[in-house]
Structures are given as structure tokens and as C-alpha cells.
């Protein structure tokens, strides 16, 4: 208790109503941290809020500290026997080269961007997702190296962080704004791979086949998890509405008594189909990606289809790609623009973008 009484408190009037609370930052709000000496002890910055406030304090003390070689270069050996003090810091130019290689040129996804093609059929959307992931990953890496005198933000480290294997897609998509749960994403990936294999061998599939492939995939997944003792999460249902997790009490009780597992139902009384629900979630996710891309296109072209009467509905259509393909095929672009009822401003914007 003595330690608690001597720990500094935040002053009255501190932001977010935190006045009087114990200060989790060693330097408090009155003074800014010394960028060389005042690095918090391990465990001090466990919460997101603590880290955010600490980063903001350092930004106020010296803008751009995460990009300065004096902090990014290792200044002392690590305690585990590794010594990176002789490694140079990765230059911004080299980092940009590695990033562009990982994402790939426009329309041709690189190794990291290709990881995102499992959730979108659009190469450009896959590259947008990849760039967001890369930016966040390298920013976190910079902060980590700048705060740790034993680590160096070196080219080998950056290259290792941009390896495709470091992309944990299920974890990324489980977070807002996508909210595609991790366990459903894992099962869904297997399901779609098996379904694609079935299509290649047998051709078109119907809902009956989809349900069968989903149920078989889910059963295999559950068997693997039970054998390994690993958690499989909740919300996993077969196409007949039965809970797939045998560790759940109501499932275990029904199995022990030799009774059918209770069936989950929709609000309208119909049977909840786990396969259909996954495909709905995936469709919603793809729709969200598409809408984000469409809004960006609308902003860049400077028009809103909702207010432009008399036009052909081009919602969801990449006009630039349409015009580029028409040009490659030798079609008259003016005739195409007339057919789509594009006004002069839109016609000029699209043609200019298509010809660059």
C-alpha cells in the first residue's frame, strides 16, 4: 500500500475525467518524457490507452521520433545473446521497395496481397487490404524498435515482417469493421477449397451439395480440435441447425442421453443453416469491401450516381477498366460514353484515367 500512496496521481482537470487517478506513465502529464532515458519498464504499457498516451507524449516531445536512426538503431546487445548493434537501419527508400514488392503493381497482387484474395475476387481490393495491413504492421514494428535499445529496425527485420506467412488473415478479418469471426473464417476457407474442387470435378453445385460439403468440412474441423484439445469457439452450426461443438453442455448432455442435439432456429421459426449463414457473412463482407471501393471511385471521379438522373446505372462498375478494355478492343470510346450517358465532365475524367 505504501507504494500506491507514493505513486503520482494525475492532476485535477486531466483529460477524460481521469483527474486523481494513479498515473500509469512514469513521467505523468506535467512533463514530457526524455526520449533517450525515459523508456517505461516492461509491463507499464499493457493497455491500449496507456500506449496511446505514451506515444502521444513522445510525439509532442519530438515529432517523428519513430523515424530517427538514433532510436531505430540498436545501441546495446540483447540479453538473450543476440547483438544487432552492427546492423544498419533500413532506409525509407528500401522500405518502400519492399512494401511495393509485397503489395505488387496495380492489378497484379504481390505475395502479401495475394493472401487477401481468399476473401475478395478483386485484385485492387486485395491490394488495398494488404496496404492497410502493411502500414499498421510496420508502424507497430517501428514503435517497438524505437522503444527497445536492443532492437534494430533493419532491412532483414522489415523483410521478415512482410513475409506472406506473417499475415494472419483470420485475426485481421475478425476485427471491426469486417467482424468475420476467426473460426468461421478458417472453416470457411476449407469449405470453399473443397467446394471449388467439387465444382472442377462435377460441375455446377446446388444448395444440397453445398450443405453436404459444409457439414463434412465442419465435422473434420471439430474432430481435429477434439483430438488436439484445442478450443474451437462458439457459433459453429451444421446445415441442419445443430451446434457442432460437443464441449457445449447442451450438446454433451444430448449425446450422453442418446437424444438429438437441439436445433437452432431463426426468428421466423425456420432452421438455422450454418453454411448459409457463413455465406451471408462472407457476402456482407465482400459487399462492404465493394462499397468502400465504390465510394472511393465516386469521390475520385467527383460524382454521385444517386443525383445523376438519366444515366445508365453504373453502380459497382469500374468505368476506367471498362474504357481500357474497350480501347484495347478498338472500340470507339465516344460511342461508349454516349451509350452510358456520361456527361462531359465524367467523360473527360474516365477517358483521361483510362489512357494513363
TrEMBL record:
Segments of this protein annotated with the region Disordered: 1-39
Tree of life domain: Bacteria
Question: What is the official name of this protein in its record?
Answer: Uncharacterized protein
**What species is this protein from?**
Bifidobacterium pseudolongum subsp. globosum
